[in-house]
Amino acid sequence: MSQTVDRALSILPLLAEGPADLGQVADRLGVHKSTALRLLRTLHEHGLVYRQSDQRYRLGARLFALAQEAVENLDVREIAHPHLVRLNEQCGHTVHLAVYEENEVLYIDKVESRYPVRMYSRIGKPVAITVAAVAKLLLADLPEAERRALADKLDYPMYTARSIPNAPAFLKELATVREQGWATDLGGHEESINCVAAPIRGADGRVAAAMSVSAPNVVVTADELLTLLPLVRRTADAISGDYSGRTPTKEAPQEMSTE
Hints:
two-stranded antiparallel ribbon, alpha+beta, transcription, 10 helices, GAF-like_dom_sf, 5-stranded antiparallel sheet, transcription regulation, elongated, HTH_MetabolicPath_Reg
C-alpha cells in the first residue's frame, strides 16, 4: 500500500512540470501503463488530476483549492510561538513577532524579557513603522512600486537623532535590508532600546512575518545584541521551515525575494 501511495504522489510533481500522457507517466514511475492508469484514475476521482481532451493529464483544480485552504488556515503565531519561547530562554531578552496588515505593522506575539528592565510594547499594537526592525523587513519585501508609494505616504517622526528622516533615506534603508536579509533598530525609536530582526518566509519565499529580539542598553550594548543575530536568524529559519513545510537551508544567508 505504501508503494502505491508513493507512486501516486510521485505523479503530482511530474504533472506540475506540465501535462503528460499515460506513457510519459508510466515511464517516469517505471511501471506498466495499466498500473499508471489505475493511479491516474484514482487521482482523477479525487480531483487531484484532470484528463484533457487530448488524453494528457494535468493537475486538477481540487489540488489548488486544497493548497489555498491549507495556506489560509496556517497560523504563523501558533507555529512560531514555541520557537520564540526557546529563543527567549536562550538569550533572556524580549522577543516579538510581527505581521504587515492594511498598511500597518502589528505585533502579534511577545515573550517578555527575564530581566527587571523591560520594554513597553503590546500585542496588537502597531509598531513605529519607519524605524522598527520588523517593519523594515516586512516592507522591504513589498514590490518596488508598492514600497515607493508607501514610503511617499508615510510621516517620518524624529523619535531620536537616529530615526529615519525622510522617504529617500527610508527606501535606501529598505534596499539594504532587502539585500542582507535582516534588519536592526539601534536607538531609532528609543535611545535606550536596540533590536535585531529576521524574516519568516512562507512556501512562496515571500516574507510572511518578522521576528525580533530587543533589549535596553542597561542590559546589553548594541554590539552585544548584534552577536545574537546568527541565533535570531536560525530561529527565523526554523519557523520558516515549519510554516512553509520545507526544510530551511542551515546557515545560508538569504536575500529578500525579488519581484
